[in-house]
Every structure is written in structure tokens, then in C-alpha cells.
Amino acid sequence: MKHLAALNKYFITYKWRFLLGLLFTAISIVFSIFQPIMVRQIFDLLEQNLNTYGLVSDTKLRGAFRNDFTAVLAFYGIIILVFALLSGFFMFLQRQTLVVMSRFIEYDLKNDVYEHYQRLDLNFFKMHRTGDLMSRITEDVSRVRMYVGPAVMYTTRTLIMLVIIVYLMLEVNPMLTLYTLFPLPILAITIYYVNHIIHQKSERIQAQLSGITSIAQESYSGIRVIKSYVQEDNTVNFFDKASEDYKQSSISLAKTDAMYQPAMALMIGLSVILTIFTGGLQVMNGTITVGNLAEFVIYVNMLTFPIFSIGWVASMVQRAAASQQRLNEFLQIRPDIKDSPDAQAVIIKGGIRLENVSFTYPHTGITALKHFNLSIQPGQKVAVIGRTGAGKSTLAQLLIRMYDPQEGRVEIDGLDIRGIKLESLREQISYVPQDVFLFSDSITNNIRFARPDADMETVKRAARQASIEKDITQFREGFDTMIGERGVTLSGGQKQRISIARGLLKDPNVMVFDDCLSAVDAKTEKEIISNLYDYLQHKTAIIITHRIFTLFEFDKIVVLDEGAIVEEGTHEELLSLNGYYANLYARQQSGEEDIVMAS
Ligand SMILES: Nc1ncnc2c1ncn2[C@@H]1O[C@H](COP(=O)(O)OP(=O)(O)OP(=O)(O)O)[C@@H](O)[C@H]1O
Fold it and tell me: Are residues 83 and 229 in the same domain?
């Protein structure tokens, strides 16, 4: 329960709506209470006048008596109707305030969680599954809404109703009150347990359903692999098995559900019978009137739903508390990568220095860089070459502070990057990642993602520089072409070039290209490299690659192996070393570079 305290700030934000909701609840209940009171009066009137009516033998008088009595009944009927309408109207207002408030809180909470996710660093996302993040922001937030909305609403309704009705009942007869209320707690406890079982079963079904969804999703995404390995039947069997489990669980839930309503009706029926039986005895004793008995029967019916809701609300609150606990767990995580209090926004010219940098990935313990040193002057172009897993991408990650090194320092223009505001740092370094990610949006918007204010001409220029403009204009809808789920309508090379265009559009002084030409053919690669040559004239550029770009005159080429530099120099200097670089160059020249890359 203590976890739910985190939600109090939202109740404070919407306090007026909340208080108004409580007021409407109370008014609605007060109007509904008039119904049993009116019924009691009608019954009492009937009882009192029935004997007199029996004694009247004159037909005319009997007629007049009946007419008068009908008029009184109609009057009571109208009053009951009016009060019922008023009660209903305030119930409508109650829902409009409290339930609407819960929707506002759900909206705020969802945005807060999403905003918090955005602020967390990469390590957090590596440590938690996407499914987990998704379910917290959707299912957990929805469950919490059930607490701030329906649970609060039904609890206040139940409390106000219980206080008023029990007071009225005690006024009439304490003994009968005890008998009448006796089965109701049993009803509440039963509902709580049945709800608990239903919830457990529903959870299981939900988990199975998301399992089925992931199987289906994965098989659609991997349909090419499934077909090429002729695994359709196996995939179908796998899906069948998951579906069968889901069906069995659903049938079991339907059985429990089917018992729910009859069990409730039985409990309520028992309560009414008990009231009529004990009340009837009291009427015969003359302790209460027939009207009181009728009034009690209505009270029992009125209390049924609130009592039922206690069990329901209790399990709802329990679930909401568990969900809020999960949300709090994430909301309390603070990013490791954040601005230091004295961090400044600077204009980056492009000088880069890594001094004795060692970095180990925190969640795997893999050391990717060891005592690494590198110095780049503003405007220099540097190639980083090395085997797979050598630590090349890690170097790029450290430059944009996706991680901080455990040892050593990374400097930009002589300033430790931990002293530069994160936003300022990342805004001024363009990083084209190795793994392309395109959004399900138009090509324009995907490129413009780097600079949302860029005009169309600038977007087209970036596309031209990335050698993708021609391809785009050949699409029926040109730059407006929508990229399907994960860019399925594009080839690997096209996706890479759109990603490069996005990086170029940003146009800062420092550019990092992380092996982003691997899926383009040699001719296009040449074209892009020659475009880049002009584009990068006055910029600092780090080009991570597996291939040697002879067209490009690098100021420095570093060869990485196992997290450290093993060769460093210009093209000529490295060739004369006759080491890894010279070997790779020789193989590339003879068209064998693929062998080298795989080694
Ligand atoms: N996010 C990560 N979490 C944990 N370990 C990682 C992560 N990324 C890389 N590594 C590990 O760090 C080491 C260096 O990886 P890195 O991606 O920097 O190599 P790379 O030289 O860029 O390789 P490639 O050429 O294949 O892209 C590898 O052993 C890799 O397994």
C-alpha cells in the first residue's frame, strides 16, 4: 500500500475535481436513501388504512377511499421517481469528476513514466527487456488508474452509504440490523477470493496471449528465414501448442466466471431471506412495522453492490499497489550519465583526446577498451579499423557519452566531456550508427529527425550527399514515401544511406560514422566517399570501418585490437609497418577482404 503514496501528488493536482466528486457522491447517495423511506411510509399507510377500508361497507365511500389512496400512491411514486432521477444525475456528475480525474492522472502518469524512460541512459535499456518497459507503461499504468478512479469512487460511495444506511437501520431496530448485515462481510470476503482467483487466471491468460503475439510477430518478421529453411510446419506446431495452452486457460477462467454471478445471487438471496424471516418475526411481535421490513429489504439490496465492491476494490488496490511498486522501481532509477552541476554548454570546434581510457560494459563485464590513447586535432579525419569486437563502436559510444569510462578521460577541445552539458555535446556530434534505425514515417521525416526545422531543400541536399536522392525520386511518392514497419520496403543499402543523410543533415563540426557503408556496393561507396570528402572539409571526422578507403586521405589511421591501438599512422606509414593494415590492404586489393573481415 505504501507504494501508492507516490500517487498522492496527482490527487493534490486534481484536488478540486476530487473534492467535487466526493460531494456529488454524497448528494447522489442522500437522494437514493429517500426511496426506502418513501416505501416504508407507503407500506405503513397501507397497513394503517387497510383495516379501516375493510370496515367501510358503503360502495361510494369505498370508491372515494380508493381514489384518495391511489392519489397518495401516485404522489409517493412521483417523489420516488424525482429522487431517483436526482440521484442518477448526481451519480453521472460523480463519474464525470472522479472517473475523468482518473483518466487525467493516467495521462500524466504515462507521460511521466515515458519522460523518465527518455532520460535514462543506455545501460538501463540494455538491462531491461523492451516488453517489460512496454508493460509497465501500459498495463501497470492502467491498473494504477483503476485505483485512482473506480477504487476511490466505489470506496467513498461504500463508506458514505454504509454510514447513512447503518445509522437509519439502527434507528429502526439494532437486532434486525445485526441479522441483516451478518452475511454481507462473508459476501465481501468471498468476492475478494473469487476475484483473486479470476485475476490470477487472467494474468496467466495475458502472459500466454503476449507469448502467442510474440511468436506470431517473430514468425512474420522472420518469414524469409522460416521459408528458406522450410520450417513452416514446425512454426505452425509451435504456434498451435501455445494456442492450445491459451484455450485451456481461457476455458478454466470461463468456468470460474460462470460461478461468480450465481454465487453472488445466492448470497444476496440468503441475506434477503434472513431479513424477511427475522423481520417478519419482529413485525408479529409488534417491534417494527411492515413498512420497516420493506425498508430493510431495500437497504439490503442497496448495500449489496457496495459490499460486493469492497472485495472487488480490495483486490484492485492490491494489484494497483504491485503495479505502482513496479513503476516506482523505474521512476526511482537515476541515470548514471547526467549533467554535472557545473556542466557548461560550449561550442565544439572538434579537438578530441582520449587519455588512458579503459571501459568495461557494466552489465556484461566485457572490457572493450584498455588504456586507450588517441588525439585528434580539429578538422582532422581519422579512420578506425580493426577486427570485429575490437572496441571501435565503443569508442564512438564514449565520445557521445552513452557511457562514461571507468578509467581515464575523454576530452573535447581540452575540456573533459563530463563538464559539457549532455545536450550541447550530443547536439554537436553527429553519430551515424552501425545498426540503422528508421521510424515508421515518411523518408523526409526520417531524415529530418536530425533537425526538425530543416527545409526541404536541405533535406534533399543531405540525401544527395548520401547518394540516396536518386533512389528516393524513383519511388512513386518520392520523399513522402512511408517507410514500413522497420523500413521493410527498403534495401539494406538504402536504409544505411537514409541513416547517413540523417547524420549529414545535422551538420555539426564533429562527425562519427560507425561502419555505415557495409551494405552499399563498391560504386555507391565510392560516390559517398567522394561526396563526404567535400562535405567534411572543415570538420573533424572519425570513420569506423572494416574496409580501407583509399580515395580518402586520412590524417591518421588507427588499427584497434582487443581494445587497444596496435598500429597508428598515415596510409603510407601503416603500409610500411607491414602489419595488420598492410595485410588488409593487400587482401582488399586482390579482392579478398571478406576473408580478412571474417577472421
Ligand atoms: N552494449 C554492449 N554491452 C555489452 N558488451 C558489449 C556491448 N557492445 C559491445 N560489447 C562488447 O564489447 C566489445 C567491443 O565491442 P564493439 O562493438 O566496440 O566492437 P567493434 O570493434 O565495433 O565490433 P564490430 O566491428 O563487430 O562492430 C565486444 O567484445 C562486444 O562483445
Answer: yes
Mean pLDDT across the stretch 140-165? 91
Distance 397 CA to ligand 1 centre (A): 10
Residues 287 and 365 in one domain: no
User: In angstroms, what is the span from residue 564 Cα to ligand 1's centroid?
Assistant: 13
Q: How far apart are the first and last CA of the chain?
A: 57
- Give the amino acid at 442: S
8 A C-beta contact, residue 17 and residue 97: yes
Residue the block writes with cell 423481520: 279
* Residue 567 CA, ligand 1 centroid: distance in Å: 20
Ligand 1 centroid, distance to 391 Cα (angstroms): 6
Which residue's CA is the nearest one to ligand 1's atom 29?
Answer: 389
Distance CA(351)–CA(129), nearest Å, equals 37
| Separation of alpha carbons 375 and 289, rounded Å | 99
Q: Is the same domain home to 117 and 261? A: yes
User: Is residue 126 a part of any domain in this protein?
Assistant: yes
* Pocket perturbation via mutation, ligand 1, pick of 393, 516, 565 by most ligand atoms within 8 A of CB: 393
Phi, psi of 341 (to 5 degrees): -60, -30
CA angle, 531 then 536 then 540, to 5°: 150
pTM for the complete prediction? 0.77
Side by side, the strands of the sheet bearing 556-561 are 429-432, 510-514, 540-545, 381-386, 556-561, 564-569
pLDDT in tens, 471-510: 899 888 889 888 876 555 788 888 999 999 999 999 899 9
pLDDT tens-place string over residues 238-250? 899 989 999 999 9
239 in helix, strand or coil? Answer: helix
Total count of domains within the chain: 3
283 shares a domain with 213: yes
CATH of the domain at 143: 1.20.1560.10
**Residue 2 host element (H or E):** none
The answer, yes or no, to whether any atom of ligand 1 lies below 6 A from the CB of 366, is yes
pLDDT at position 401 over 90: yes
Stretch 403-427: mean pLDDT:
93
Set of cell numbers at residue 310:
469492497
Give yes or no: residues 250 and 365 share one domain: no
Whether ligand 1 lies within 6 angstroms of the CB of 59 is answered as no
pLDDT digits (tens, 9 = 90+) for 182-220: 877 887 788 788 888 888 888 888 788 878 888 888 888
In a domain, 183, yes or no: yes
ipTM score for this prediction: 0.94
Q: What phi, psi does 440 have (nearest 5°)?
A: -75, 80
Cα dihedral 4/6/9/14 (nearest 10): -30
Q: Within a domain: residue 288? A: yes
Give a yes or no: residue 393 inside a domain.
yes
Q: Are residues 466 and 424 in the same domain?
A: no
Check if 563 has its Cβ closer than 6 Å to any atom of ligand 1.
Answer: no
* Residue 555 domain boundaries: 346-428+510-599
